[in-house]
Write a structure and sequence with these properties.
With 245 residues, the chain is α+β, with helices and mostly antiparallel strands. It is built from four helices and twelve strands, in the order ααββαββββββββββα. The chain folds into three domains: 51 residues; 35 residues, no CATH class; 115 residues, Glucose Permease (Domain IIA).
């Protein structure tokens, strides 16, 4: 009878020992309410910090040269700049096509003669070279400020202070003897143009003054004549039409 009781006592002692060892370990693996709350709060805090970071990236972004936050604002900025560019181009074109002031005191406004074709230079000059190779016209050399006249009646097609290498230049379209003729006057003095594009002129009408603008090394008139779009020798053309050069 004592042997079974002793066995029971031994088993009881072993069970108590196992419980004493296992319960703390179990307790360490089971999160308390406070620990669970802390973990949940950390997760919530992290989520909020992510939201804040996301909102921070929504600040206005620079798109090219436009500081805007919406497509509408960007489009408005582009439209405003395009309008400014158009206005600037229009002002430049107006300045280029309009003649500038230049004193005409004591200058004949019409070249002498009565023929359909007049000498474009109203003063003394000499011809330094004429149509040849890559040179498209005659260079009629004279003093700066020598008056220049329309070789024939017609309509001004070009009048500008910057006409390629011709510098200050004028181009006039004519109809002579049923032919389409154009004459070009280059290297005039800045501010001396007396006509503008679209204007009708008479034969021998004052159009400007001799200078050395554009690709030029001396004061002269570069005079070109085209018939039906093809170049002709200008001095011979003047002589043939009764306007000795």
């Amino acid at each position: 009878m004592k042997k079974p009781l002793r066995s029971i006592a031994i088993f009881g002692a072993v069970g108590a020992l196992v419980a004493a060892v296992a319960l703390p370990a179990y307790a360490s693996t089971t999160p308390t309410t406070e620990a669970a709350t802390t973990l949940q709060q950390v997760a919530m805090d992290d989520a909020q910090s992510l939201v804040v970071a996301s909102e921070a990236t929504s600040a206005p972004m620079d798109r090219g040269n436009y500081s805007a936050t919406t497509p509408e604002e960007i489009a408005q900025k582009k439209a405003e700049e395009a309008a400014k560019a158009r206005a600037a181009a229009a002002a430049k074109a107006a300045a280029s096509s309009s003649p500038s002031s230049y004193s005409t005191a004591g200058v004949a406004l019409v070249a002498p003669g009565s023929g359909q074709v007049r000498n474009p230079v109203g003063g003394s000059y000499y011809v330094s070279r004429t149509l040849s190779g890559s040179h498209n016209g005659a260079d009629m050399v004279g003093d700066a400020g020598t008056p220049l006249y329309a070789a024939a009646a017609g309509t001004v097609r070009i009048s500008t202070d910057s006409y390629y290498g011709y510098g200050v230049g004028v181009v006039i379209d004519h109809v002579l003897g049923g032919q389409q003729v154009s004459t070009l006057y280059g290297h005039m003095i800045y501010g001396s143009r007396q006509v503008q594009a679209g204007q009708t002129v008479q034969a021998g009408q004052l159009i400007g003054f001799m200078g050395s603008t554009g690709r030029s090394t001396a004061n002269h008139l570069h005079f070109e004549v085209r018939i039906g779009g093809g170049l002709v020798e200008p001095i011979g053309w003047l002589n043939a039409n009764g306007a000795p050069a």
